[in-house]
């Protein structure tokens, strides 16, 4: 972290140089002297320092400057560095203005020109100002910062994207002093959030995810035009395929549209994955798998969505949403499933502003002391209930059935029964939601009696089944009526090979109706919806990829 700055601004180049020289002589080993010759360039320098997370200890401004005088400059500088000590440099004739400035900008000192000898007139003043500043100095920061509103859906999306991609960042509310200072430094207002301030001081205003990804060190562009294996989707199945593919010498690229880890990455605790007797959080498992894939040489592209698959003779071509493409010998489709949206009126508009799909672990501390509603009776909802119970006053688990026994693992049912602040509401469905800035109330209906009631809450987490969202594969590979990709024996029921199939063999076990394109994990029809089976299918798909390549 660079030394804190002492900034001087004077429009007279000779005076400007002289002040900077005298200050540098005594403080140059501990402080960086930043010199400007107009208020505007000085403010520009301060904005940059603010965005880079650096500190400013003292501001020394000449009073008589064109366009903006020293007092006006110090006033503007206070919006960026309120803790910096302020000194006005004046001629004897301007002493009155300097005295007035004591009130206007809370001036710490005015220095009469000339200030020689500095040992008598300048250094004692600066020594005491620096001592005062050191006592109040905010810690310097090199963190990524996200400035936003608690209830802004785009702010939530940016935070969630970073959290799920395991990018460390600090969340700063736009109406906190630091948030307001960063907005001023970036030249935007609270209406423009989220503002992302990167570790090297760049500011991004409401960036698209691909742009954000590129600025936080995630790779978004492929290094080559052609690969042996392209894996689409970086959940457990895709990560498994990438680890095995790369470790077995295939030129492998893994493409993820949102966050590595897929659904598993959202899990607060996976208790039933082999080798982790005490359970493992989805984030931990994801982080390990991602590092493992990268160590073996797989490329990982983030924030890139594949929107089309084409058969180009011996090659398979995958197109991205921006029109670019990537070609490969083989493909593993590992795109999993996504949560279904709750159709209740009023909720769509509140998505990301109190109504969330899937477990949003990063939101849990914000629910502290409040009532949280969770919809769904499967393991994912159960895990979320256990996780949120550590923060919330009360967790209400809403299920349509009579109890959890049919849909949830018994270890979770037992855990939930032992947690006092989780209440299970059977035969209950959500039929509406409302709120102005954010979710404020949810309408519940008792399925048996039809009775409807409203409850006040700002937090609704929905886990109501999932769908594969594979429309982009329409016409490319055969799918079942629900959109799951058909593979192997499911394609040859009745002894007939799929239409368009040109090879003199049946499709391999995980192979789709397009030769060389395999499916693994939740997206595959008839798959077991589990982390272990997804990882296993990813590994198995790679062995079939080898078999396919050998026969080419
Ligand atoms: C909260 C929660 C808790 C769970 N807990 C457990 C548990 O304890 N034990 C257990 O065994 N299972 C658990 N599961 C289920 C398990 O996580 C899934 O079965 C598993 O993640 C499936 O892996 P997958 O790789 O097939 O798909 P997913 O995990 O769904 O990953 C698919 C990935 O593909 C990406 N993708 C989709 N389309 C595209 C595209 N067109 N272009 C690029 N990328 C794309 C998605 O963004 C996603 O990251 C849980 C699920 C959830 C949601």
Show unreliable segments: none
% residues in beta strands: 15-25%
* Rg, Å, rounded: 30 Å
| Total count of helical runs of at least 4 residues | 14
Overall average residue pLDDT? 94
Helix coverage percent: 25-40%
Bound heterogens, unique: flavin-adenine dinucleotide
Quaternary: single chain
Class of secondary structure makeup: alpha/beta
Straight-line distance between termini: 55 Å
Number of strands: 26
Shape: elongated
Outline:
The protein is α/β, with parallel strands linked by helices. 29% of the residues lie in helices and 22% in strands.
What order do the helices and strands come in, and which of them pair?
Layout: E1 5-9, H1 13-27, E2 32-36, H2 39-51, E3 56-62, H3 70-80, E4 85-90, H4 95-104, E5 109-112, H5 118-121, H6 123-136, E6 145-148, H7 153-164, E7 170-173, H8 177-186, E8 195-197, E9 203-205, H9 209-215, E10 226-232, H10 236-247, E11 252-255, H11 282-295, E12 299-301, E13 306-312, E14 315-320, E15 325-333, E16 338-339, E17 355-357, E18 371-375, H12 379-389, E19 394-398, H13 410-417, E20 422-425, E21 428-434, E22 441-446, E23 452-456, E24 460-462, E25 466-467, E26 517-519, H14 531-551
Parallel strand pairs: 1-2, 1-3, 3-4, 4-5, 6-7, 10-11, 10-15, 11-12, 15-26, 17-24, 18-19, 18-24, 19-20
Antiparallel strand pairs: 6-8, 8-9, 13-14, 14-15, 16-25, 21-22, 22-23
Helix pairs in contact: 2-3, 2-8, 10-11, 10-14, 12-13
The protein binds flavin-adenine dinucleotide.
Residues 232-238, 255-258, 262-264, 266-267, 270-272, 305-306, 334-337, 358-359, 379-380, 383, 521-523, 529-532, 534 line the site of flavin-adenine dinucleotide (FAD).
């Amino acid at each position: 972290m660079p030394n804190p700055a002492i900034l001087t601004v004077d429009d007279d180049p000779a005076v400007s140089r002289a002040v900077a020289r005298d200050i540098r002589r005594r403080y140059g080993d501990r402080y960086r002297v930043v010199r400007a010759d107009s208020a505007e360039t000085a403010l520009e320098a301060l904005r940059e320092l603010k965005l880079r997370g650096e500190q400013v200890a003292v501001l020394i401004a000449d009073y008589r400057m064109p366009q903006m005088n020293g007092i006006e400059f110090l006033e503007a500088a206070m919006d960026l560095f309120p803790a910096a000590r302020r000194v006005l440099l004046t001629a004897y004739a301007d002493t009155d203005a300097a005295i007035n400035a004591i009130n206007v900008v809370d001036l710490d000192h005015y220095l009469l020109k000339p200030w020689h000898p500095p040992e008598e007139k300048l250094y004692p003043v600066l020594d005491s100002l620096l001592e005062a500043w050191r006592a109040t100095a905010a810690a310097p920061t090199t963190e990524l910062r996200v400035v936003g509103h608690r209830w802004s859906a785009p702010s939530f999306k940016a935070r969630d994207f970073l959290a799920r991609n395991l990018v460390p960042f600090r969340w700063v509310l736009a109406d906190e002093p630091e948030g307001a200072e960063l907005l001023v430094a970036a030249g935007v207002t609270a209406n423009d959030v989220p503002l992302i301030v990167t570790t090297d001081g760049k500011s991004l205003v409401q960036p698209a995810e691909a742009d954000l990804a590129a600025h936080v060190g995630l790779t978004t562009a492929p290094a080559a035009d052609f690969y042996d294996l392209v894996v689409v989707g970086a959940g457990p199945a895709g990560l498994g395929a990438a680890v095995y593919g790369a470790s077995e010498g295939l030129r492998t690229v893994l493409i993820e549209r949102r966050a590595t880890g897929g659904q598993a990455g959202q899990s607060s605790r996976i208790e039933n994955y082999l080798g982790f007797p005490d359970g493992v959080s989805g984030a931990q498992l994801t982080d390990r798998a991602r590092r493992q894939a990268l160590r073996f040489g797989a490329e990982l592209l983030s924030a890139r969505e594949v929107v089309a698959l084409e058969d180009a003779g011996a090659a398979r071509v995958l197109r991205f949403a921006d029109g670019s493409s990537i070609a490969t010998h083989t493909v593993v489709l590992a795109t999993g499933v996504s949560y279904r949206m709750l159709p209740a009126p009023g909720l769509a508009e509140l998505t990301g502003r109190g109504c969330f799909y899937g477990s949003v672990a990063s939101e849990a501390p914000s629910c502290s002391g409040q009532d949280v509603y969770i919809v769904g009776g499967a393991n994912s909802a159960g895990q979320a209930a256990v996780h949120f119970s550590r923060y919330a006053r009360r967790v209400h688990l809403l299920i349509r059935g009579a109890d959890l026994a049919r849909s949830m693992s018994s270890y979770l049912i037992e855990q939930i029964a032992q947690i006092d602040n989780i209440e299970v509401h059977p035969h209950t469905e959500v039929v509406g939601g409302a709120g102005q800035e954010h979710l404020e109330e949810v309408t519940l209906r008792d399925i048996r009696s039809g009775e409807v009631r409203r409850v006040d809450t700002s937090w609704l987490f929905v886990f109501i089944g999932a769908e594969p969202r594979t429309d982009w594969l329409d016409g490319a590979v055969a799918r079942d009526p629900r959109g799951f990709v058909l593979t192997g024996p499911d394609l040859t029921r009745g002894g007939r090979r799929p239409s368009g199939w040109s090879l003199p063999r049946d499709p391999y076990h995980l192979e789709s109706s397009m030769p060389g394109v395999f499916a693994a994990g939740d997206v595959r029809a008839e798959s077991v919806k589990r982390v272990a089976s997804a990882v296993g299918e990813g590994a198995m798909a790679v062995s079939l990829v080898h078999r396919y390549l050998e026969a080419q």
